């Protein structure tokens, strides 16, 4: 009751036994790991790649050509809470603490806190032995995992990759620190709105399967979208600060267009980071207007509807961006009312709008330490 910020995007119907069939595994991993593995399993099953693999004369080559890239939040404060009762009991006596450690703390504690659990168990579950990488980089970790997978496939290191990201933004101690930084709102998450005053944190996970064109054709897989290009960079301004004028982000957006081989006129949708923080929103809007000039490309955001899932947010946005392209719809921001002064000229709406056919989408993802990532995505024809 003493907390001034009590809003968060929490998974209410969280039932581990239904999310993972392996009950032994549930006992040795954390809540966030369960979400991440569950997302990976859903993506793999939806892709139908396992049925195809099992139809092959030998699965070894398939497994060796299947990569796993993960956006991981790393360790969380709650993973240290197992020590609290023993610390209280021993009253700061570290010798006594050490003597009773194995009696008081769960023997699987170390396994539960490994930051690469989702990566490891996804590979173990399916036998995937290709390249892998566990990216821990605040809110851009998931999007950078997509980029890593994209480059692995483009370079021939892998034919396909499972990409998954997950996070728990609603962890109490973490939320407390975000509140102290002044970046969360106790009212709403309203990107680019005159009343934007902070973000709302959430928990979640998302996963997708990236494949080479040859891999898609070989198994007649359904293709939903194509990663055309992407780049990441840091503004190098500080851990909690960003450039007010958005020029570094604008430069990254321009470079992303150039390396993707397209021009700004071909972008029909901009999926913004849109976290509801006024400084982030304003600088992002300025960057977009700098790159797209008077084109008024329809822009939207997704965090208003579910909260900011931090490391998971980039993969979530990529999945939703692909769906928007597939359905030719620019989703509205339902709680948008009046544009913030600095954001004027940005084409946002509370209503859904029709998306121009055969157009590309640019997706923006941002994180602490002034990190920026841009992706260009196209719907499969």
From TrEMBL:
Keyword terms: Transferase
GO MF annotation terms: 3-oxoacyl-[acyl-carrier-protein] synthase activity
BP-aspect Gene Ontology terms: fatty acid biosynthetic process
Record field: transmembrane: none
Nucleotide-binding in keyword set: no
Record-annotated Ketosynthase family 3 (KS3) domain positions: 1-379
Pathway: Lipid metabolism; fatty acid biosynthesis
Coiled coil: none
InterPro entries listed in its UniProt record: Beta-ketoacyl_synthase, Ketoacyl_synth_C, Ketoacyl_synth_N, PKS_Beta-ketoAc_synthase_dom, Thiolase-like
Cellular component terms per the entry's GO annotation: cytosol
Keyword Transferase recorded: yes
Similarity comment: family membership: Belongs to the thiolase-like superfamily. Beta-ketoacyl-ACP synthases family.
Protein name (database record): 3-oxoacyl-ACP synthase
Source organism per UniProt: Legionella pneumophila
């Amino acid at each position: 009751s003493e907390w001034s910020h009590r809003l968060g995007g929490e998974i209410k119907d969280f039932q581990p036994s239904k999310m993972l069939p392996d009950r032994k595994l549930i006992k040795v991993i954390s809540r966030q790991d369960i979400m991440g593995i569950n997302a990976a399993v859903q993506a793999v099953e939806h892709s139908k790649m396992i049925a195809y693999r099992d139809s092959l004369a030998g699965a070894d080559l398939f497994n060796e050509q299947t990569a796993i890239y993960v956006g991981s939040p790393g360790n969380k404060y709650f993973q240290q809470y197992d020590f609290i009762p023993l610390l209280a009991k021993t009253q700061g006596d570290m010798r006594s603490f050490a003597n009773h450690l194995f009696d008081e703390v769960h023997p699987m504690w170390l396994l539960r806190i490994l930051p690469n659990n989702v990566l490891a168990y996804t590979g173990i579950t399916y036998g995937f032995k290709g390249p892998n990488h566990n990216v821990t980089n605040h809110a851009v970790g998931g999007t950078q995992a997509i980029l890593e997978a994209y480059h692995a496939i483009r370079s021939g290191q892998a034919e396909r990759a499972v990409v998954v990201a997950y996070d728990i933004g609603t962890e109490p101690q973490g939320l407390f620190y975000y509140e102290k930084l002044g970046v969360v709102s106790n009212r709403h998450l309203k990107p680019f709105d005159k009343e934007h005053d902070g973000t709302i944190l959430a928990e979640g996970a998302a996963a997708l399967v990236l494949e080479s064109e040859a891999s898609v054709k070989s198994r007649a897989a359904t293709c939903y979208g194509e990663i055309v290009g992407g780049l990441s960079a840091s503004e190098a301004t500080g851990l909690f600060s960003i450039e007010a004028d958005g020029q570094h982000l604008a430069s990254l957006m321009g470079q992303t267009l150039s390396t993707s081989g397209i021009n700004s006129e071909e972008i029909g949708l901009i999926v913004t980071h849109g976290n509801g923080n006024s400084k982030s929103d304003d600088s992002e809007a300025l960057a977009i207007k700098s790159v797209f000039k008077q084109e008024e490309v329809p822009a939207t955001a997704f965090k208003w509807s579910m909260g900011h899932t931090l490391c998971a947010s980039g993969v979530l946005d990529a999945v939703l961006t692909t769906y928007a392209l597939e359905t030719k719809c620019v989703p509205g921001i339902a709680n948008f009312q009046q544009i913030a002064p600095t954001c004027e000229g940005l084409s946002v709406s509370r209503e859904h709008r029709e998306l121009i056919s055969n157009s590309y989408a640019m997706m923006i993802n941002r994180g602490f330490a002034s990190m920026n990532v841009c992706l260009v995505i196209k719907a499969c024809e």
